[in-house]
Specification:
Blueprint: H1 2-12, E1 21-24, E2 27-30, E3 38-39, H2 61-73, H3 77-84, H4 91-110, H5 122-130, H6 135-152, H7 158-177, H8 183-194, H9 199-212, H10 217-227, H11 235-247, H12 258-265, H13 280-295, H14 303-316, H15 320-330, H16 345-362
Length: about 375
């Protein structure tokens, strides 16, 4: 199956891959799109690449409706009402805060504006000015500043630090407005990573989150970055953090999948070891994530995040049928790791999806044999 990884390498440097993979003698070779035997993801009811939603990992109809309304009217009130009606300690509120902040940040990037212009994200500034005691607006503003720091400046520069200092102050204001709310402290985790908090300070921050939401998957993912070797920890510390969280995960929690995220954060840039994706550490992390998916509530907002990462690893492991089982649950939305790290998340996802379909068909699978 060496040709798969040669093909993937070509795609990752800019080539365009269509539905061009063919079943033949148990192997896979390239054919022209539209050829009779070409593996076509559309046969499985999958969305076309241009239809993939890059904003979120999975569906949230209420959020999409409100986001569209806010961006169309530039009126913040619907966003405030949605957050006010979302459970404070749950994963969904954190995702919605991120989505509103990200929408405002992207708007500003697209329309920087000037003194007399109407810059993007103006609705968020109006929200904070007209409702300064709105806890939801304060949390969105804090997360907006964090995203601005990472998007518009370079880590370690004075500009980066100034924006994060402002974000830290905004987190403090948001925490005062909603004392039991974990989100201001979850937002601060990214600040801690960017400003290189001493470990004692980071652990004190982490304890505040554990007091409020001990099984919060989004918080654990944010904290994991701090412990990675590319930031302020080591591979061993990141693995230890993830495995400890998985070990204490309550029944039905997705924390059992955290070791797979730790493995992903420490993937070698160039893999020179044949069979790396069949190694014990990868296999164990995949099985933990599959167990978490099987045990989780079907409506868990973080479930799609785990499924997307499983697609990446299962395709790499050439476990085609299992990858297809995950794809049928997440297809249509690609706002999750690992796709969001790409300049074109939809294209990256489509590559892996095409490989999964081709591998599945190369081993005798078809739309008729795939359970839904």
């Amino acid at each position: 199956m060496e040709i798969l990884w040669v093909l993937m390498a070509v795609v990752m440097i800019g080539a365009v891959l269509g539905p061009v993979l063919l079943r033949r003698r148990g192997g896979i070779r390239q054919v022209h799109p539209g050829a009779p035997d070409a593996a076509d993801p559309a046969n499985y009811g999958f969305a076309r690449q241009e239809e993939l939603d890059i904003r979120m990992p999975g569906p949230d109809a209420d959020l999409i409706e409100v986001l569209d309304l806010v961006q169309r009217t530039q009126d913040w009130r619907a966003a405030s009402q949605l957050l006010a009606g979302t459970e404070v300690h749950g994963e969904q509120r954190w995702q919605r805060v991120q989505a509103f902040a990200g929408a405002a940040s992207l708007e500003l990037a697209q329309r920087p504006g000037g003194v007399s212009d109407n810059p993007g994200g103006q609705w968020l500034r109006v929200w904070r000015a007209e409702a300064p005691k709105d806890a939801g607006g304060a949390a969105v503003h804090a997360e907006f500043l964090v995203q601005q720091a990472w998007r518009s400046s370079t880590a370690g520069t004075d500009e980066f630090r100034i924006i994060l200092e402002e974000a830290k102050e905004a987190c403090g204001q948001a925490a005062l407005l909603s004392p039991g709310d974990p989100i201001p402290y979850i937002v601060e985790l990214s600040i801690a990573r960017g400003m290189a908090y001493p470990r004692a300070d980071f652990e004190q921050l982490w304890l505040k989150i554990l007091d409020r939401a001990p099984a919060h998957m989004g918080a654990h993912l944010a904290a994991l970055h701090y412990w990675c070797e590319k930031w302020h920890g080591t591979r061993e510390e990141a693995y230890s953090f993830a495995e400890a969280a998985a070990a204490r995960a309550p029944k039905g929690s997705l924390l059992s999948a955290l070791p797979l995220f730790a493995v992903y954060e420490h993937l070698p840039e160039v893999n020179l070891v044949r069979g790396f994706y069949q190694s014990e550490v990868v296999t164990k992390a995949i099985e933990g994530a599959k167990f978490a998916v099987h045990s989780a509530r079907p409506d868990d907002p973080m479930l799609a995040h785990v499924r997307h990462l499983l697609v990446f690893f299962l395709v790499r492991c050439e476990r085609w049928g299992e990858a297809m089982d995950q794809l049928i649950h997440v297809d249509g939305h690609v706002g999750a790791l690992p796709w969001t790290l790409s300049p074109d998340p939809a294209a990256d996802y489509a590559v892996y999806r095409a490989l999964a379909v081709a591998g599945y068909e190369a081993n005798g699978g078809s739309p008729a044999t795939l359970p839904h």
